[in-house]
Design brief:
five-stranded mixed sheet, alpha/beta, homodimer, about 425 residues, 16 strands, about 45% helix
């Protein structure tokens, strides 16, 4: 493996991750590497068992083309999603499939104890066998709020202020820990595994307990000076709005369109006591609107129109190809999206809006875990030690075993050839 | 020059462009290239005469360090600025100094004839001697509105719709033509030569006849899917606003804060006839406000507050280090900026705003030409033919002459050593 440029391996592995099943020619086209580098890299990865030959295609000229994919079980990651009202934990394999999961409620009324995060991870870990454990490479975390460069998280939802999450996880599990806030892990998941696959200019707008946007601009994840770009929830699009925001200001987008604020506005309109807020679900507001409840419809109208304005702001500033919307607000997709589109069309420059695809996330509740797994994969490629582990999986031992057996005259039946 | 990687030369030339006078060690640090590559590249560029040794510094250890800079006259560019009410044309040298300039008014009442652009360029060209002409590498254009991938410009100001500017210039002058819209050329100028030098996350907000933002995000110029990112002028920050925008919609930021709209609002407030609009200057509104005119003050208040809201939107979304403001609105800097800052502080997430520098452009009226020159330099480095020309200037002939003379025993007195 010594004479292989790490960049070749990274590019090949990224291509296989995003495309699952590809031919050599497709890898050459996607990576823009020269064919000799690709051949060199593929040979090493096939020998190691990181990628597998899963079939052959007959070409026009009669020459056969190998069909390749990643060995999904060549490595594992621990994915943690702290966004939302439930913590989710997953054991994910190399390609982001969730092999085992665990979840538990977050008690929003108190500060989340780190023990409950550690317990969730332990619940996943105890399901690994020894071989899997040795190929467990890293922890990926999708969290609400902000994290600083030391991995200290500040998140209103979790009642955390500069909470040293990364240090706690590294201490407990002796694994590298990679963290991003939820809107960025979600755009990673959408771009690598979901609706925005392969797009160079795409964005994921999360509208759940909070509101944020993850941006890929010109093929790169937007980070900003301190890695906190994308705070769409605290953009003020109506300076006259008096809706109180949990950040302490008024009129923030989040204070109008987040799910708890959809409920709040509805309860205010019908004169219900604010105490009912915790018990009431945003899906109930959507159900009322579907039944023609005028208060619910008025709230839906306001939320959709404000979201349309926010999306037009993104379209005008970023000139994207795709905007994916996710978070609990998509339970009201049938109500929100038509109104959102109308406002978006009214407010965007036609030239910037032309061709923009507006999609609802197809990754569902798993998006946080998938994003945390994609983050862990992506960061592991950049870490020389972890890249080496990916390129020499335990599975390789078994494969090499197979190869030795072949030398003794037994035919391999691996793969779909 | 054959065995030199073009990327080494590009990185060295970029560093010298941005820093003017540097040592070898500083180039190594800035480019992150290995010292041998830098030595190799510098040797070739010094021999060719693209860079010059302009002095020596005594180091601590007694070893002398060469001080280097670009040979400013190693190449020339034609810079064209079509933003604003006057067309500007400049002959710029390799480092972006304007060596000769020409300008003429734009008649806003009719479609700008391409002949007047060609005439302006001719007025500059006839001042070049033959040696300069042979090192004239490219035309850089800063234009209002949009350009498509073929260089067809659509700009309300110029009354152009899909006007084939690039083709016309290429045909007339047989030179490569590089074009960008004004907010992007301005951030290039600020980042390479001005207030945002070296910043990885910076933005330039132009508030003149139009409004737009040029963005460097994580060290790269934000382009978007069709290269039209940054349309801040058409973001709607107040859906109730009825100010008519020249784009056909209402309530766009530009319809409130652009200079013609500052004048319009003032004339409306004092009940003056709209016909006076063309004759009235934004500086007069600012003068009235300074004299305490309540109508002028009310307009200034609204404009500054709306700009503060827009800047907070940029701070929350992009998490920048520096925002530079330019365009004719800076004639009212003393009135606008304090109010803008107040609103910006009120509306931004403290964590995103902390440390953001708000600066007024220091490049003045030359920013469009400087930006067009920076664009032409930057693009020329990416063009193998032009890069080769930069790395083998006419000046090299004279320098090689000098070198030959040295061999015959005469000492060179070049530079400040």
């Amino acid at each position: 493996m010594a004479r292989l440029a790490p960049e070749w391996l990274r590019e090949i592995l990224r291509t296989l991750y995003q495309n699952r099943t590809v031919t050599r020619a497709e890898i050459i086209e996607a990576t823009k590497l020269n064919p000799a580098s690709v051949s060199h890299g593929l040979k090493a990865l096939l020998q190691a068992g990181t990628i597998l030959k899963v079939g052959e295609l007959e070409s026009n000229g009669g020459r056969r083309r190998e069909v390749l994919n990643l060995n999904a079980e060549a490595a594992y990651f621990l994915a943690v999603d702290l966004e939302g009202t439930r913590m989710q934990f997953g054991l994910t394999n190399l390609v982001g499939d969730i092999r085992y999961r665990w979840s538990s409620d977050i008690d929003l009324s108190q500060s989340l104890p780190v023990e409950s995060v550690l317990d969730g991870i332990q619940a996943v870990l105890k399901n690994l066998d020894a071989a899997q454990r040795s190929q467990l490479l890293a922890v990926g975390v999708s969290h609400p709020g902000f994290a600083d460069s030391e991995g200290r998280v500040t998140a209103v939802n979790l009642n955390w202020s500069d909470f040293p999450l990364r240090a706690a996880l590294e201490r407990a599990f002796d694994l590298p820990v990679f963290m991003e806030d939820a809107h960025r892990t979600c755009i990673l998941a959408e771009r690598w595994l979901g609706a925005a696959k392969g797009s160079r200019n795409c964005m994921y707008v999360i509208v759940g307990n909070g509101v944020g946007v993850g941006v890929f601009a010109d093929g790169r994840l937007l980070e900003g000076r301190d890695g906190i770009a994308g705070e769409l929830g605290h953009v003020v699009l109506d300076s006259a709005a008096t809706d109180p925001c949990r950040c302490g200001r008024t009129g923030c987008l989040e204070a109008v369109v987040s799910c708890p604020n959809i409920v709040r506005q509805y309860l205010e309109k019908i004169g219900a006591s604010p105490e009912r807020l915790a018990a009431y679900k945003v899906t109930e507001v959507f159900d009322r609107a579907r039944q023609g409840d005028s208060s619910a419809l008025a709230v839906v109208e306001r939320v959709a129109s404000r979201l349309g304005l926010a999306f037009s702001c993104l379209v005008n500033l970023f000139n994207p190809e795709i905007i994916v919307i996710g978070g609990d607000v998509v339970y009201g997709e049938d109500l929100i999206l038509p109104r959102l589109r109308t406002e978006l069309e009214r407010r965007s420059l036609p030239r910037a809006l032309a061709g923009v695809q507006l999609k609802v996330s197809s990754l569902g509740l798993d998006i946080g875990l998938k994003g945390a797994a994609a983050l862990a994969f992506r960061q592991s490629l950049l870490n020389p030690v972890l890249l080496k582990k990916i390129c020499s999986p335990m599975a390789a031992v078994r494969l090499h075993g197979g190869a030795r057996k072949r030398k003794r005259g037994r035919r391999s039946v691996r793969g779909a050839r």
